[in-house]
Amino acid sequence: MGGASPLVADLDGDGFEEIVAGGASPQGEVMVYNHDGSHVASAPWTFPKDVQGHVGGGDLNNDGQIEAVFAEYEQGAFGRIHAVDIDGRELPGWPATFGQPVLVTAAITIFDFDGDGRLETLYTTAWIWGYNASGLTLLDDQGAPLPGWPVEIDETVESGFAIADLDLDGDMEIVTAGYVGAGQGEASIFAFNHDGTPFAAEPRLATLDAGVVGTPVSLANLDGGPEPEIVACDWAGHIHVFDNQGGAVNGWPPVANFGYVDAMPVALRSAPNEVSALWCNTNPSYVLLYHADGTLDSH
């Protein structure tokens, strides 16, 4: 699986969760296990190319059961996004085929982006790691790109997506981050409306002094206002917080730098709509607690 996350969900509606995991092999295999460790009868699901990366899940056809969604590809070759039910059957309209030889570089995200009651599938592709060009694609429940998608950006996107109503207009926006080259140079936060148009005047909402590689962008209400703030950890170990217009929030990033943040910070709430602190761990190993104003808790 290359460090990617499996899907854990009740695929057959029996009240017990199954585990769906892809892995690199001469034939792309997707392993599906029951809660007791036994194989689901239809598994393994076998495909011509490698199945790598995170496995997503959602009830794409509104039949009351969750389908697994994952990418099959190899570097330098065309790839596909599959949507498969518990019996190993592809849903109508799937798989969706990539338009060029690419890698899927961020977790596949399934959500009702446009509020129509049906789920869409969001994924990111890049030619190769560090090529500085990525495409974001939003598919409907039949595996077809929605109008306005895909969109192209001029950085490699490996970070996961954050989804929220940034401007409180009732529509969901999509936030992600990229990097240039090996991740050591300047990089950006990108934000899009659900129809693929830029959330702001241009897709680039804010810039960072190093790339966001692997760790997802997150959202938290740090200032107590109605709109969420955007939290991103860069390769240089800085924790950035931006408002919904891309402006840096006072106190962030903190002056002290304890190394690369291994995972997305966890927001700790003291009130229903207000975050009082961010908890994170770093490499080298520190566990840190930052107050909402960017100061470090010394206790």
Task: Please outline the helices and strands.
Blueprint: E1 7-9, E2 18-23, E3 28-33, E4 45-47, E5 51-58, E6 67-72, E7 80-84, E8 96-97, E9 103-104, E10 109-111, E11 120-126, E12 134-139, E13 151-153, E14 162-164, E15 173-177, E16 187-193, E17 204-208, E18 218-220, E19 229-233, E20 239-242, E21 260-261, E22 266-271, E23 274-283, E24 286-291
Antiparallel strand pairs: 1-2, 2-3, 3-4, 5-6, 6-7, 7-8, 9-11, 10-11, 11-12, 12-13, 14-15, 15-16, 16-17, 18-19, 19-20, 21-23, 22-23, 23-24
Protein model, in words:
With 299 residues, this protein is mainly β. The chain folds into two domains: 1-153; 154-298, Lipocalin. The protein has strands at 7-9, 18-23, 28-33, 45-47, 51-58, 67-72, 80-84, 96-97, 103-104, 109-111, 120-126, 134-139, 151-153, 162-164, 173-177, 187-193, 204-208, 218-220, 229-233, 239-242, 260-261, 266-271, 274-283, 286-291. Strands 9, 10, 11, 12 and 13 form a five-stranded antiparallel β-sheet that branches. A hairpin with an 8-residue loop joins strand 14 (162-164) and strand 15. The protein is globular, with a radius of gyration of 19 Å. The mean pLDDT is 83.
